[in-house]
Amino acid sequence: MITAAVVTALTAAALVTTSAAAAPAGITSVRATDQSIQVKGTAGAATDVAVYALGVEQDDSAWNGGTPVATVRSDAAGAFAATVSTQLYYDKFVAVADGAIVGTDHQVDDVAITPTNSYPYPTSPTKKGLQVQLTADAEELGVGHAAINVAFNQIMQMSDAGAGQSIPFVSQGRTFYFDAAAVGGIDRQIKPLSDNRTVVNLILLLYRDDRPNSSWQVLKHPDADLRGGPVFGFNTKTAEGIAYYTAAVEFLAQRYTRTDQQYGRATGFIVGNEIDAPWDWQNMGLKTIDEFLPYYERALRITYLATRKAYGEARTYVSLTHAWARSLVPDPQRYYAGKDVVDRLNAMTKVHGDYPWNVAYHPYPDNLVDPRFWKDGNTTSDPDSTPKITLRNIEVLPQYLSRPGLTYDGQQRRIILSEQGCNTPNTSAESERNQAACYALAYYKVAFLPGIDAFILHRHVDHRQEGGLRLGLWWWDDTVDAPAAPKTQKLVYNVFRDIDTSRSLEATKFALDVIGIKDWSELVPGWDPAKLAVRSNPATVGASRTAMPRQVRTLMDFTSGTQGWRVSDASDQVTAVDGVLRTHFTWSAGNAAQLAQLWRGTDVVLPQAVDTAGAQALSVRIRIPADAAVGTRFVKIKAYGDDGRVVEGATRLGDGADWQRASIDLSGWSGRIARIKVWVRGSTQAAWSGSFDLDDVQLAGALAGADRTGNLSIAAAAPEGIGAGKPVRVTVRNDDLRPVSDPTDVRPCDGVTLDPSTFPTTGIAPGAATTFAATVARSAPADPYSPRMCFQVAGFEYEVAVAVPPKPVPVAKPLFDFDDGTTQGWQAGSGIASVSAATATANGPGVPQAGPYMLDGASPVESSLLPKTMYVDPPKPLDLSAAKRVVAWVDSYGGAPNSTGYEVTFTLRSGSSVQTITQPYKADQWNEVSLDVSNWAGRSSVDHVEVTMHAVGGDYPNWGAHFQVDSLGWFDSL
User: Fold this and answer.
1) Is the pTM of this model over 0.70?
2) Which residue(s) pair with 200 in the sheet?
3) Rounded Cα gap, residues 290 and 902, in angstroms
4) Taking burial as the number of CB atoms within 10 A of a residue's CB, which of 369, 612, 782, 942 is the most buried?
5) Smallest Cα–Cα separation from 400: which of 343, 475, 350, 438?
6) How confident is the model at residue 593 (pLDDT cuts 50, 70, 90)?
7) What is the pLDDT of residues 328-376, one digit of tens each?
8) Buried b (16+ CB within 10 A) or exposed e, 349-361
């Protein structure tokens, strides 16, 4: 009897070559060393064997007519061995005897070369990870693992753009070019993370990019269907595409695995995104799994070989959704079961040369909207049949991959959970509690589950273009021109920060009631609370801007340059100017990390660790140009010991642009300082471009004039809103050098007062915080969604923003949402060739505005200036008598050469009466178009609805655009 596993293996072999044979004869191993590549196998006894090297894009039959790279004779047992050039490292090999291929093709499966870089794989004490957006905040959160998107279309160019614009790189004797600005941006993401010993993984992606010098045109798989996406499969079908892809991976590996970490360190490489849903996330057009996998596996193996040349411990991963034994959508040319992908990929690599590819899994809840995964359906404990593997049954994944037939070299393939999140369905306190409970239970399950290395949360900040999901640790700020601008932290933020520390159980206690259990052991196998604290948060010490250092020892005065200080979080340049260190940070649209309220700064690794014996303080002089828009300014000083301990202190600065002195208390800390970091921030959501200056970094034997405690941090949160009678939490943290000397008084401001009006803060120790419960006594703020409160302590005034749930997003009464998977009667008008209900698109953000489907219109290749229209004539006129305004959400491709923008027209018609609006919109994101119908008599009988777009500016005659519409509805108020 032939088992299913054997059938799978034979099928996988046939996928890759037209000449594959079932017999074990043929090439059995290919070993790469520094001197040569050694090809070994078996054939007939005493037989002449010719070994051919082929490009991986070639069919095995291409040997015929070629020249062998080696000819050998097998021994009496049939064994043969050939030695060939290392220049064939990426090729596949076939053995030919008696005019026919023996066995099947084989690639390098034993990398024994000396890599450019050699060191143990980086580790973290915690499995906690994050897809990081804000690097300084990631340090505050104690992130141990990170995943960073790398868009190949952005970093790789078609040609040299000139000095300072391109980075040349030689791959296989040919020079390729990389966008200097885009690569620099990745450097600034990776470097601060790896400097903090975060284990960084790169997600290798390709998006549509119509810029003339983007490598998209070569890297895109030739069979890709632009109706799908937004992430596309790499071109491993042509030699040119393979050359570009190989060069890109080599460039990243050589840059980010360096021993000296000059640009930061990344050691994990995730090839593509969710390849079991390729129509959306690895688009190569309509393909069955047997047609898709050979192309994908080429990219996977190239990544493994290229990264192992650079760094001997580099890890390569396959990305999968939570769909396991059943595909997300029953469409075998667009979606596959994750289990089938693993099984077939394993069989394929076992036949053609196995290597340690690993799994980057995405165990989202069954329903992405509902974070209560402990109630998930579609999940069982059987790894062979469970429709999905979510956080509820995540333990079945390592169980399955531990099966002997699926292992590599006898070991389970490594697993990281590289993307999953817990949604906040609405802005209520209950919703926040559900999200935070989701994260707490998920982290605990993974923390005690062997076989999984990392649990990387998605997202850092809510994203407005993520199909209505709010998965972040921060609420977004919709007043900022960026899709994921952080405004205030959610409940889950503190849970995430403290869950792997000694405060873990305190931070998650609330979640037991939310989930409905009495103890975590009920749902967490292997639960052991003694093992929760695997790391410590930095020790917070007192700080002051008024105390003056005495008995100083100057570490740096910058008279000889920057003295090793470098760009760190959210900054872009460090220079020495007239004996002063100047750190620059430049605002750019969409870069939410540079909002004033967020930390940014500079750091230095000291040439030799400095002994702090006898030092009472670490002190710097600092100067920040005055800018009223950024609000109150703060500075934080961090000292990193060579033993891994970190101390930090923050102080608010006085007004004005003069030099000020900031000092942190080292009196309770002994050891040697190996690294120093200085951050600054403001207190508002303003876009902040500018710089700050540092001078005279000193250790002080004493501090004078530190008697008053004026350096407090006060935070207020109203989780149910700011209405009268609502609860408020006020947290007072002493950031000063001495205990708090006075109570804290509430001062009326912004129409808000509290009961009680005084909090007993006297005696709070430096570095300590106390939270007080209060009630809103009076509430008349100028903006209830941005209220402020005022306090006074020891003569110092504090005005703070109150954290409240964001303003609820109004929901339109639906007219057309396309969520039944149909066009709901909409048709192609002028300039549109076809319309369809789509789940994803090639342009950003790539997902519907809400729900599972949107309307997508494809235009023919024509002038970008011509109107492109979609319309519907309802079978029964729409009665919108109660409507005040009607809305539609629109999106489209961008990148029309010569254009200066895009314009949309939204039209309603009732007989001969027309109501219409035309406005500009931004491509690659959802835009609301709102039409006022409050005074339109025709709204009671609307018989035609039409949406039209076109580019404006210069013409591009060969533009094949896609245009999307979603969530048409109406409101009964303006």
Assistant:
1) yes
2) 146
3) 41
4) 942
5) 343
6) low
7) 989 999 999 999 999 999 999 999 999 999 999 999 999 998 999 999 9
8) bbbbbbbbbbbbb
